[in-house]
Description:
The protein is built from 13 helices and 17 strands. It has about 375 residues and is α+β, with helices and mostly antiparallel strands. Strands 1, 2, 3, 4, 10, 11, 12, 14, 15, 16 and 17 form an eleven-stranded mixed sheet that branches. It has a two-stranded antiparallel sheet with strand order 5-9. It has a two-stranded antiparallel sheet with strand order 6-13.
Amino acid sequence: MPQHTRFGMLNFSAIALLLGAGQCLAATDLRAVVDASVKPLMQQQAIPGLVVGVVQNGKTQYFNYGVANQDARQPVSEDTLFEIGSVSKTFTATLAGYAVATGELTLSAPASQYLPALRGSAFEHISVLNLGTYSAGGLPLQFPREADNTQHMLSYFQRWTPAFTPGTQRLYSNPSLGLFGYLAAHSLKQPFDQAMEKTLLPKLGLKHTFITVPKSQMNLYAQGYGKDGKPVRVGPGAMDSEAYGIKTSASDLLHYVQANLDPTRLEKPLQQAVTTTHTGYYTVNGMTQGLGWEMYPYPVPRDVLVNGNSTQMAMEPHPVKWLTPAQPPRADTLVNKTGSTSGFGAYVAYVPSKGLGVVILANKNYPNEERVKVAHAILEAMQQ
């Protein structure tokens, strides 16, 4: 069982014996690196609370800053629940991978095969994989306002026509990944929320990860804050659960990272599911697109990682180069994903070949560039 401690309880001598001298920073040195990155950022961006979790070869540490709620002044901890926005897409992709592993879903099949309501639409010629890799032909970043609800989302897809040939361009899209997850759950003959909360999350060993936070856990649910500093939490929307609905803690999210670093601990279908999400399907601007996850050859320069998580990458179409055959998971990669809601910002990055991972959760949405810089500095420091 992987160990985890709060900072200040870490026995560095024991780590040195286990990992070898020079393979990781002393706890005090890592604290200095995290402090130097996080404290100025929180002041600059007016972030009320932020948690950094790191893992190195199974050993976890947490660095907690600020408060979960400005009124109650409740300090954040590794158990505080945060909205993780589009990091949820990696969970959705893992559920789809599980459906593939159990023989219920075929990525190359047309989307309409799994949802009769899509027959006769453009989705007769758009694959499940196109949806999972944002290459369906130009589905937008968000649903139009009139379609951003459960009642009208399917009619939106029925009427939608591609702006360019499916499979030729990447355009980051909540409707695309949302429909991907919707079809995956449909193939499992379960509503999405049920498939996630009753099947996938328990199989991953995640006990404090939710789509709907239960009343018994609401005291751990951080208050998010908007750009204006006012309290805000995520609201309902079309396929919100699939695209950006997960709430979790740094502790649970780091446990999830460890499952991705070493999936052999999981049952066989989940091992295959993780492999499916880490498979490279195409390249675009130096990034390799997986399912949910985005990957880079490691080591990766900070500027490359910043550019890959930029507003331009999220908002504009980019031509893709498909990998034929698809590229099996590689250990020498950095795997990452950002996520945001109106009041929260999240970032996850890990390096399988090094056994390293970092999660950063905050109860304010702030620029992706700043998240990447902090994570990159921490990962670099952990190898010194």
